[in-house]
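FIELD: query
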Amino acid sequence: MRVRRVRVAGVGEALRRRPHRGRALCAAAAVLVVAGAGGWMVLPGGESGGGGADGRGLGSVGSLGLPWPDEGQTSIEVRGVGSLGSRGGREPVPIASVTKVMTAYVILKEHPLDAGEQGPRITVDADAAQESHSLSESTVELREGRRHTQRELLELLLLPSGNNVARLLARWDAGSQQAFVAKMNRAADELGMTRTTYTGASGFESSTKSTADDQLKLARQAMKQPVLREMVALRDTTVPGVPGTVTNTNRLLAKPGVIGLKTGSSTPAGGNLMWAAEAKSGAERHLVLGVVLGQRAHTTPTEGLAAAIDRSGALIDAVQRNLPGALRAKEQVGS
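FIELD: result
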């Protein structure tokens, strides 16, 4: 890769028409010109690509040549480095079973688990057992009176995406799903998710809406919890009393470096995926978080989820491939 640092007069006026994250650049801007396999690219020098925990940024979302989906919403960041950008606007849209990340987050906030801990046993009630046989939503076979640990139910919530498990956990924690949803919305407010409204614990209701930017805020917090992080990385599991092997609906986990997080799909929502992956840069491993919403909405859940997974996979490939070079170029500019 060849790197040139030059000054281009008039760049600022062009960039002022499309301010980068709300900050206009000066009329004579320093830029970084990078030659790679995709040709020359111009990156604003000294302009942060978004606030990581340490205030660093990549400088430009275009620097990675990401294959942004041409529909729905997408938001991506590299922890400790910064935002890679967002696409698709900020209008709240249905998020389907991505909702269950907040359900798990609230349960673990109220009932923390240490690594290896199973937690209390929770009795399957009549509602959860009856809902096991629903033909209209994603459920897990549960038997009334059976006692499962908190950890087992969280795995059944997150891997096969059991809607009946989500509602069972809500009733166990708060007495009713309605009371639990109030906790979910309070947690969203605390995380600054200002464009998010939860109306159920499972995401089955299309009235549960959010944005890719808001769900990315939740992804940050979810991946800070060791137990939750461990569960969303499981490709499958077995739970006593539940027939067969329980498989994770996130087939991207078969991809090198992918370590989570959660799928969601319905006809109104299309295909959705909150994902987490690692990208290597020398001896460092960077955590990359992304949210892709609204892929092939109003088709079928199967078609939508396939599109969300495929497009997320392409984004992960591009970040893993191009992030090391972008970080090296940024270091050269800094020096």
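FIELD: remark
Residues 1-57 have pLDDT under 50 and may be disordered.
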